[in-house]
Every structure is written in structure tokens, then in C-alpha cells.
Amino acid sequence: MAIAVVKQSNFFWEGTDKKGSRIKGKSMASSESAVKADLRRQGIMPIRIRKENFLSAMGRGKRIKSADIAFFSRQLSTMMAAGVPLVQAIDIIGRGHTNPRMRDMVLGIKADVESGNTLADSLAKQPLYFDALFVNLIRAGEHSGALETLLDRIATYKEKTEAIKKKIKKAMFYPVAVLVVATIVTAILLIFVIPEFQSLFNSAGAALPAFTQMVVNLSNSVRTKGWLYLILIVGVIVGIIQARKRSERFHEFMDRALLKIPVIGMVLNKAAIARFARTLSTMFAAGVNLVEALGSVAGATGNVIFEKATLKMRDQVSTGQQLNLAMAQSGIFPHVVVQMIAIGEEAGSIDTMAAKVADFYEEEVDNAVDSMSSLMEPFIMVILGVLVGGLVVAMYLPIFNLGNAF
């Protein structure tokens, strides 16, 4: 039997709490009536409820990024460590934000906590920004009475994760940007410059070399069918992105292929291991049992191959098998990682050893990105020389024969 998926939207609301104070916030629900019912359960009398539309979303500042959530975690951790009460800390953070979207979300969380909900339940109502891992860690901190400590670990975890993401983006941005610029320059030459040379060659009546004729034909094709080529390229890119989102098999194929790309695959592989180890360390240190922790770790690796391997390891560990043996059987973890986790299991300090693995591989990612950038520069220069230099050479080849035409 198929399960109906209810589409949820964001709603902005204003109301009064049990003390009669006017409060406002933002909730995600399937309808306006669902928002009203949820507010009444919290002891809030709704006054005005407005659904967020496309224009209001566009006009409410920049979208909330994962870096904003990492910064929110660190701010909340610092304030609570300084003795600031939870509700007051959230209020200070919310009112201090320049991004209206972030401010509305944080103040909505504050209103939710004020109405009697736990911080974990309040964050769970914002699944777009606070994933199950984040919520589970907060819930563990609230249950154990060590929320300040857990917030500090979460903040550190988010900061480390963001640092890895930035390193990977930095590695990918430079070559992609240069190739895009090279493509644009090549298109400009083909559309505007080559036709001028073609007119010169036609008036001179000179026979064109084969290479020049090929470039002229390419220029004519781009000028007449350029939009078709552009639509085709955009369609292929969009198709790949959508197929990766909708097809689990294609997603797995893409992730496996990325790991096998020279140099880039090495960086992605080390980044996935670093995220695995960092998440495992954070969850285990928070007192989450190993089987439950591995379930959260799987979704944090950022790669389907590692995710499936981690879920399989979770099932093996749940039957009594040691984690290091399950990791060795997966075949995707280096021997040194398996041995360090084995030492952690024997010593009862998996969180400490996993943190050391994470530190090592985060540094490895850093070094690999720097090395990859150095290797990419000469490769990119060769591509630019072939694309732009090839067109220039093709246009100047016939000029040496123009004297024979007169």
C-alpha cells in the first residue's frame, strides 16, 4: 500500500503566550489549520498566520547555509558555558542576526522552547537545517544534563565538517572556473571573430587549410545552432543532477565513479573517512550506543558507498561482531584506520581514537587539496593553450598563403 506524502510549507505566525505576551515565529506544517492546532497545544493563542510564498522567501534575505548552523551552535555553546540561560541565549543570538531568515528561525525556536518544548523537539521542527544527528545529540545532552558539553562538541563537529567542505569546494572551484571562462572565450571567438576572418579569406579567394576549414565549419555550426547546443548541455547537466536525486542506483554509480577519478577521488575518499571518524567520535562521546551511532554516522559520510558500508557494519555490530572486524570486511577503510579503531575498542576509548583518525585525515584532505591545486594549474594552462591558441593558429595559417592568391 502506497503511503501518501503530505507536502509541508513554512508559515509565519504571531500570537500571545500564556502570560499574554505577544510572540511570533515560524513553523513548518501541511496547512494553516495544522499550525493553529500545534500553537494551541503549546499554549499559544494564534493571532495571524501567513504562508511563506516565493516572493516573500526571496525578499527575506539570504538562504540559511550549513555554515550559519555551525556558527549558531558555537554561539549557543559559548553563551551557555558563560552561564547565560538557554532561552535568553537563543534570544540574543536571534536578534543579533542580520539575515532575516535566520533571525526568524532562531526566534521561532526560542518561542517554542518558551512554550515548554525541549530544545531537541524545537530543533526537530526545522528538519531542513537541523538533521537527525544534530537533534539526537542535543536530546542526549538534555537527558544527561550535559547540554553545555554536548553543544561544544556539536559546534566543534560542525566547524570541522564545514572546514572539509570548504577545502573540497576550493579544490573544485578553480579548475571549473577556468574551464568556464575558457569555454566563454572560445564561444566569443567562434561567434564574433572567426566570421570576420572568414570574410577576409572568401574575398581573397585563397584555399583554406584543412584545420582552418574545420574551425570555420565549427564557427558556422555554433552561430546557427548555438542555442540548441546550449540547451543540450544544460539539459544533460540538469538530467544528471535530477537522476542523482531520484535514482538510488544512479546516485551510487556517480559516487562510486567519483571515488575512482584520479586525484579528485583520493580527496573525496579521505574526506568521507574524516567525516565518518569525526561523527563516530562525537556520537560515542555523547553517550550514544555504538549501533545507534553508526546509523547516524552513515548519513554523515556524504557518499552512498560509505553510507551503505556503514549501515552494513551497523547490522554486523548489532549481532555482536567487533567494529574493527566489520570495518575490515567492508574493504573501504585503510588498514591504519581499522587498527586504530581496534585499539580504541580494546582500550574502551573509541571516541578518542576516532577523533585522532579524524584529525589525521582532515589534515590529509588539507594537504591533498593543496597538492591537487598545484597539479591542476599546468593541466589547465594546457587546456587553455589548446582551445584559444588552436583557434588563433587556425586563423593565421591561411594568411601565409594569401600572397599566392593575388
Model description:
The protein is mainly alpha-helical and 406 residues long. The protein is 75% helix and 6% strand. It is built from 17 helices and three strands. It has helices at 32-41, 54-58, 66-81, 86-95, 100-114, 119-124, 132-144, 147-204, 210-246, 248-260, 264-285, 290-300, 304-318, 323-330, 335-347, 350-396, 402-405; strands at residues 9-16, 22-29, 45-51. A three-stranded antiparallel β-sheet has the order 2-1-3. Helix 11 packs antiparallel against helix 16. The longest helix is centred in the middle third of the chain and has 58 residues, at 147-204. The protein is globular. Residues 1-6 have low confidence and may be disordered.
Lay out the secondary structure.
Layout lengths: L8 E8 L5 E8 L2 H10 L3 E7 L2 H5 L7 H16 L4 H10 L4 H15 L4 H6 L7 H13 L2 H58 L5 H37 L1 H13 L3 H22 L4 H11 L3 H15 L4 H8 L4 H13 L2 H47 L5 H4 L1
Antiparallel strand pairs: 1-2, 1-3
What structural category arises from helix and sheet content? mainly alpha
Strand proportion, as a percent range, falls in 5-15%
Please trace the helix and strand order, writing H or E for each element: EEHEHHHHHHHHHHHHHHHH
Number of E-state strands: 3
Low-confidence stretches: 1-6
Could you estimate the helical fraction of the residues in percent? Answer: over 70%
Euclidean distance between termini CA atoms: 82 Å
Q: Round the mean pLDDT to the nearest integer and report it.
A: 82
Sheet with most strands: strand arrangement? 2-1-3
Rounded to an integer in angstroms, the radius of gyration calculated over CA atoms is 28 Å
Number of helices: 17
Main sheet record: 3 strands, antiparallel
What would you call the shape? globular
